[in-house]
Amino acid sequence: MNSALKKYFPIFAGPTILAFLIAFVVPFFMGLYLSFTKFKNLNNAKWVGGANYAAALRSESGFISALGFTTIVSIISIITVNIGAFTLAYLLTRKLKGTNFFRSVFFMPNLIGGIVLGFTWQVMLNAVLKYWGQTIVNDWRLGLAGLILLVNWQLMGYMMIIYIAGLQNVPPELTEAAQIDGAGKWMTLRNVTIPMIMPSITICLFLTLANTFKMFDQNLALTNGAPLKKTQMAALNIFDTMYVLRNQRGVAQAEAVIFFLIVSVIALIQLRLTRSKEVDA
User: Fold this and answer.
1) What is the 3 state secondary structure string of 30-65?
2) DSSP letter string over 137-155?
3) Rounded Cα–Cα distance for residues 219 and 236 (Å)
4) CA separation, residue 27 to residues 13, 20, 242, 254 (Å)
5) Which of 11, 74, 197, 257 keeps 20 to 30 A from 191, CA to CA?
6) Residue 28 lies in a domain
7) Which of 73, 69, 25, 105 lies closest to 227 in space, CA to CA?
8) Does the global pTM surpass 0.70?
9) Rounded-to-integer distance, Cα 152 and Cα 161, Å
């Protein structure tokens, strides 16, 4: 069997590995190189060393403030999305009528593109805010609230499906044993259910973290960084530096590398912390 796998491995895995190298690995290392250069296109890159990284970390680039705003949006969204998704999943696994219908309804926003979501929520929120003489871009706090509402509406249904799968895999004999021992619903939830669905929690936290930190199209469509770039998230800042400030493409590439490292480190720490709390079924 092992010899057969070794024989046919290049045939079946080769195209996928090649595509991965072309689409991800090679562009990543090219981007890493370009982050140390000043360039307008790939043919005229001029080596500048760490100057791009120094420029990216200066306050005038706006990258640090964009990272700070991204962190605020991500922290709030991770908490609200996962609490809301778990609550919905818990209710929809209680054998209530119409659960399949509600699962589909809550999941549907995840199928809508980010640009469409951004413009849709902009119109809806501005229609409400106009009664107070406001718009979503008048105050950065309104933009923050709008982004969090949008993220929750888009991601909560998707995370709910993952939590439902985790809850359905909790052995019923464990909850029955806890109830026989006198544990109430809250104690059973805290000491039996939640530890058993830690793999689902790990996945949902990781996906929420990745989606909110990398959010671009929703931010572009909803506020485009207004007012005064105060609601500009990191991905949108990198885009503006790359394509609006034409002579700053090397700085934008340095920002992208820094952003990649930050998200990777945070994701690894989160995975390590949550996986350490997982228990065997």
Assistant:
1) HHHHHCCEECCCHHHCEECCCHHHHHHHCHHHCHHH
2) TT-HHHHHHHHHHHHHHHH
3) 7
4) 20, 10, 16, 14
5) 74
6) no
7) 69
8) yes
9) 14
Cα separations in angstroms, 185 against 69, 86, 108, 140, 194? 38, 15, 30, 41, 12
Q: What is the DSSP track for 184-220?
A: -HHHHIIIIIHHHTHHHHHHHHHHHHHHHHT--HHHH
Sign of CA dihedral 261, 264, 247, 65: negative
The DSSP 8-state label assigned to residue 112 in this structure reads S
Phi, psi for 16 (deg, rounded to 5): -65, -45
Nearest to 126 by CA among 144, 117, 138: 138
**pLDDT tens per residue across span 12-42:** 888 899 999 998 899 999 999 999 999 887 7
As for how many domains the chain has, the answer is 1
The model's pLDDT over 127-150, given as tens digits with 9 standing for 90+, comes to 999 999 999 999 999 999 999 999
Residue 262's contacts (CB-CB under 8 Å, 6 or more residues apart) are 67
27 CB burial (10 A radius; 0-12, 13-18, 19+) = exposed
Contacts of 253 (CB under 8 A, 6+ apart): 31, 34, 35, 52, 242
Give the domain range for residue 186.
62-276
Whether residue 15 is contained in a domain is answered as: no
**226: CATH:** 1.10.3720.10
Strand partners, 47: 37
